[in-house]
Amino acid sequence: MVNLKGRDLLSIADLNQQEIRTILDLAADLKSGKKQFQTNKTLGLLFYKASTRTRVSFSVAMYQLGGNVIDLNPSRTQVGRGEPLQDTARVLDRYLDILAIRTFAQEDIQTFADYSDIPIINALTDLEHPCQILADLQTIEESFGSLEGITMTYLGDGNNVAHSLLLGGVLMGMNVRIATPEGYEPNKDIIKQAQALAKKSEQVVITHNAKEAVENTQVLYTDVWASMGQEEESATREPIFQPYQINEELLGIADKSAIVLHCLPAYRGKEITEEVMEGNQSRIWDEAENRMHAQKALMACLLGLSD
């Protein structure tokens, strides 16, 4: 076990392999009931974007830890009226024990981290979604018994989920392939960062060929083709992204043992078909459940409950 007490999680790359391993092992123990904690700590949720899984999973996770949750709806707090983030951060630091933020700019959660001493968790920004990837890694490990050497292929938009998959995957010894249409590749700096983190035995591939990308892969992963704030682009994107749909044909090219993941919400018949989503190779519902277990483990570590 490593000591993560008081740390922030703004990027999945804020953690090293041993630290991710500590969180995943604790998540497995919490899920099985092998370990449990009791605390009176308070979690704040400051969400500028809509949320189902992240809001509910964080809330239930903290309640199961014995703590409290305060929903800091921006429309009902002064931050929604333009109070400077650094002022809000300083005040919430005096009230809360830990704060999860879902917002647009990565710089905003960095500001909270700079002006407060409590742990700050990135619950999604336009750049990264590290908590999702912790749950993904837990789900993959449950399916294969290990992460080392597993090949994961992400198909679709090179968005925040793709970024965190790249970084988290290589940190845990996985091969990561990203297949996107031209012009929709992941952030170049994130790609360089992933390549720098990867060992010689690990593979980072960015391609426009979906069929080649899924050959012999053990994990097929997708996300919506238009993220929050891009809804007006949906109709334009659909024909461009159609070749990257996870369907029976693409799944047939992958390894026979392959599993399918989707961070949800899903638009059936677009980025993934009904048949694949409900098929026996789908682990999407396990993945959604693991959001709660992974985040419970993360908070236990950052609050020092697991020491």
TrEMBL record:
Carbamoyl phosphate binds at residues 51-54, 78, 102, 129-132, 263-264, 291. GO terms for molecular function: amino acid binding; ornithine carbamoyltransferase activity. It comes from Cyanobacterium aponinum 0216. It is an enzyme of class 2 (transferase). One of its GO terms (cellular component) is cytoplasm. GO terms for biological process: citrulline biosynthetic process; L-arginine biosynthetic process via ornithine. Its EC number is 2.1.3.3. This is Ornithine carbamoyltransferase. Residues 7-142 form the Aspartate/ornithine carbamoyltransferase carbamoyl-P binding domain. Transmembrane segments: none annotated. Coiled coil: none annotated. It catalyses: carbamoyl phosphate + L-ornithine = L-citrulline + phosphate + H(+). The gene is argF.
